[in-house]
Amino acid sequence: MSMWSRGMLPVVVIGLLFSWLALDQGVALANEHATTKPDPVPVKPDPASPKSWEKLRHSTSRSQASKATALHKLPVTIIGRDGAPMELVSAGEFTMGSEHGDDDEQPIHRVFLDSFYLDTFEVTNGRFAKFVEAIQSEPPWGFADQETPVAHAEKPVRWVNWLEATGYCLWAGKRLPTEAEWEKAARGTEGRTYPWGNDLPTAAHAVFGLKEGADTVAPIGNRDLGRSAYGIHDLAGNLYEWVADWYDETFYTTQPTVNPRGPVEGTVKVQRGGSYINGPYRLRSTFRTKSDPTEHDAHVGFRCAQDAPAQP
After folding, report:
1. What is the DSSP letter of 124?
2. Fewest CB atoms within 10 A around its CB: which of 1, 29, 92, 271?
3. For the chain, how many helices (H) and strands (E)?
4. In sequence order, what DSSP letters do the residues of 202-259 get, joined into one string?
5. pLDDT digit string (tens) for 228-284?
């Protein structure tokens, strides 16, 4: 039995993926520096010349306006390397946690996140099949009959553990979202209970409350009323989603307030969003659960994130 079918990507593949991603980012950074002109050195105005001061004032105003405009130039939607659309989640603060949930959702706290992109949809069977083919690996559980990636290409991939999800994201030039990023993408800056708002879910909002079975997992993007404020689909229901963070029940009591990355170590990884067999309580955007990163589960999928380009 291969390491993949036992629930682990080969170590050499993970190493190659990390090396490839680091090299790619290095090249992109070098290109950015090579094509970016340095800011001009400001000229000190002549104190005796009012026109000189006026010229500086107009120049400064234009510079500030140019920078303000640049901050809004990030496209709302991009296409990732794997061909999947991604939505922009703009930089800023949001409220994380809930007083109406479990103990591990407390205390409520404010968190600042830099801009990032998140997949509009969960990764599908069809896209994951291309990853399996590209790295010449054996397919994961429930995927070996060749029917799933063809007949159900638009359904989200499941039976994928955290290591395999991480491998896919790296292969696509992306990464798993942090827990904080996932929650902001789901509830926005308004502190929504669910991605669409505070109303209880219906069948038009999310896939939930169903019996076990492959047919109950819905294709991506068929619950438009359930979209988040950023236009992201299926953040509640259908499948739980892996995120990058280790789970710690008390992490919110010590969590950094700027771009938190989760505990530095742990034994289980966080999952978010609820699945097709869950009720409204677990579909809440603040609900947290966890699982062993090598565990395969019929109720768990994932989506990828990507850093937004640095703004001037």
Report:
1. B
2. 1
3. 7, 10
4. -TTT---S--SSGGGSPPTT--GGG--TTS---SSSSSEEEEEEEP-TTGGGT--SBS
5. 999 999 999 999 999 999 999 999 999 999 999 999 999 999 999 999 999 999 999
Rounded Cα distance, 112 and 259, in Å? 6
- Reported confidence tier of residue 47, pLDDT bands at 50, 70, 90: very low
* Superfamily for the 11-36+77-307 domain: paralog of FGE (formylglycine-generating enzyme) (3.90.1580.10)
The domain limits of the chain are: 11-36+77-307, 37-73
DSSP designation for 44? P
E runs forming strands in the chain = 77-79, 85-89, 92-96, 109-113, 116-119, 240-246, 269-272, 289-291, 300-301, 305-307
H/E run at residue 21: helix 11-35
Q: Which residue has the tokens 């039976």?
A: 159
Q: Which residue has the tokens 């004032």?
A: 57
Q: Kindly report whether the global pTM for this prediction surpasses the value 0.90.
A: no
Q: Which residues pair with 241 in a beta bridge?
A: 272, 301
CB 167 within 8 A of CB 132: no
Q: Which two tokens stand for residue 110?
A: 């404010």
pLDDT at 64 over 90: no
